[in-house]
Amino acid sequence: MHYFFKEGSSLAAGRLIELDPDDLNHAYRVLRLRENSVVAVADGRGAAFKGIIESIGQQAAFIRLGDPLPAAESPLRIVLLQGLAKGEKMDLIIRQATELGVQRIVPIVTERSIPRLDESREANRLKRWRKVARAAAAQCRRAFLPEVFPVHDFNGALSLLEGREALVPWEEEKECGLESLLKQPLPAKEAVYIFIGPEGGFGMREIEALTAAGARTFHLGPRILRTETAAAVTVGLIQAAWGDLGVGSR
């Protein structure tokens, strides 16, 4: 069943909705969907419905909504604060984080970030990242669209904690592994904040600032992981321990 988003709309069974222009092009020209095709439509805020295409053409497509669909959302709210990575790595990180159920993604400029904050490019970059998240959410049938924040500097990202506890994988941590943290009760009911360093990791001053703000460092084992791998592994293990990864039935 092909999946589409109709953001900013109040969806309900029986309602007739029109696909957005970008989705129309994909549905009609790429997927070659036609009348009576069964699809799914979500509002990006947690509600999704099965639908039947009543009419479709080059100019418009209309879908009649039917029964609601079960949500594919984790009960665990995860906020990923990701050090900027070069090239297409940020696209990969955002895609994987979306598939793993992250609710918010905050790109951050750190001491060792290779790509720097460039205001002239930020709008286009943010638009692309949000498009990546949208496509990933549709692919894995999430009814909730993760929020991709504009790029923050390190201090701005740190202020988002507001006293909440955060988890930070750090290659210099020698004693505490993630496994030992995950055996403990969920640290906070509101959300789990995860800081991931860029290529080269966090600088010592950043680690000191994070721990002073209440973050806990841990190691991911004997091997040094790339930033995109560390993000996926950390989120996956946390979802398996405290969220819904590997739990329940489809």
Characterization of this structure:
It is built from seven helices and twelve strands. The radius of gyration is 20 Å and the shape is elongated. The strands form two sheets. Strands 6, 7, 8, 9, 10, 11 and 12 form a seven-stranded parallel β-sheet that branches. The protein has a five-stranded mixed β-sheet with strand order 1-3-4-5-2. The chain has helices at residues 21-30, 89-99, 119-139, 154-159, 178-182, 204-212, 227-242, and strands at residues 2-5, 16-18, 38-42, 48-56, 61-68, 78-83, 104-109, 147-148, 152-153, 166-169, 192-196, 216-218. α2 runs parallel beside α7 (227-242). It has 250 residues and is an alpha/beta fold. The protein folds into two domains: 2-68, Beta Barrel (Ribosomal Protein L25, Chain P); 78-242, SPOUT methyltransferase, trefoil knot domain (Alpha/beta knot, 3-Layer(aba) Sandwich).
